[in-house]
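Translate sequence into structure tokens.
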Amino acid sequence: MSNSAKAEAVLALHRFGMGPRPGSIAAVGTDPRGALIAELDRPLVLSAAASLPTSAKAYRTVADANARRTARAKQAQQQAKKQQMAAAPAAASDQGQAQAQTEGLAQGYSQQKDAAEMAAKQAADAIPDPGRPIYLQEAKLRTEAALAADIGFAERLVWFWSNHFCVSANRIQSMSGAYEREAVRAHALGRFVDLLQAVEGHPAMLFYLDNLESMGANSTAGINRSRGLNENFAREIMELHTLGVRTGYTQDDVISFANVLTGWTLVPPGADPQHGGEFTFNPRLHEPGGQTVLGKRYEQDDAEQGRAVLRDLAAHPATATHVATKLARHFIADEPPLALVEQMARTFRDTEGDLKQVAITMVSSDEAWRRPPSKLKRPGEWVVGMVRATGITQVDPVRFTGGQELLGEALWRPPAPKGYPDDEASWIDGVGRRLDVANNFAERITGMADPQVIIEDVFASQVAPEVKQAVGRAESRQQALALLFMSADFQRR
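Result follows.
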């Protein structure tokens, strides 16, 4: 393989994949565009996903544990109160004077109250929270899929769409990983409308964007409870997920769409032990009557009303441009080539939102390959790329998620519904913290990873001469590895 072919293969692995790993240059071969496209034909499934609970099952598991914790705490408090009542007469009889008796009882009751609260806390803590282990299992499976991929283009697309349609584990930890598997991964290479329907109808998204109890003012529940509409869900779908900001919709459109989405909720876990946590349409919450969104009237009186609006939003020309721009910004440049964006948007429109074809258009265009690797990798991409280069395929999810959190990109915990940013300005100030992570990782693997092997075999010697020189002059293998990991060849794509 010529040096130019090697350079293009390494660029493909960095720009569109998860970074070079042992054997990946050979997997790309002399036709990197063809290799990227071929990876999209492989099933986007996780081999060990069957061992993980569904999102609804995870939600019920956590809800059941919380209910048991509350019950145990109440039992402990009741028991402590009984002991206090039994001890009170004895405490009172031991007092010699009225004032001393009052003060002693007050102090005793305070101590007993503290003891009761402590007993309640200990009783609750005796039942562990299952949400954290579920989260870590999901994180491990997701990360190891990225480490094991030959190229990782398909995995990068999953990561992109998961961030585009983000939820937060800070709000719904038990469902965050299963949401990505069920709604995003299952549709990331299909039609946008199917992906849109899956994510917006997923209980994790309904929970995250506060739609569970949004109710129409004229709905049965709205009249009885004197409560009303929550516009968050409708606004974020239009502004972030489909049309994009300033694309012609009005506040009235948001309100009408929010009314359309009333009744989209989930089955309470206590109400149905078998189906708690699953999507349901509750007509008692739904605003009756038709609604007008973007000039079109929707007269359906059930969940189909919302699905009809989503179908039209998916087909809107502004959605094609918004999606194409975000994809090109993520993979190519902070300011993506307008010609490439238009090519991708046209494919989106012509194929009715076939996301696989949009991705193929991107990697097939010369515009996607002309720029040097100048885009700064986000922390999660950099960490995975660093680990991939060593050939490691299994990770400790506690350590891994902790590292991502340290770098400001905690897994499934974006700071806002718009997800993590995709521009250099948002991440450049945190590059200094990457040095601590690189040093720590280099120290742990110094006995099993050779920086020269990474340069010559994994990267096919396609690193800058000054990096080779710095690695060769390093005082230790640990320092050499850290220097390599912090180089632009690892940081940029």
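Note: The chain has a mean pLDDT of 93.
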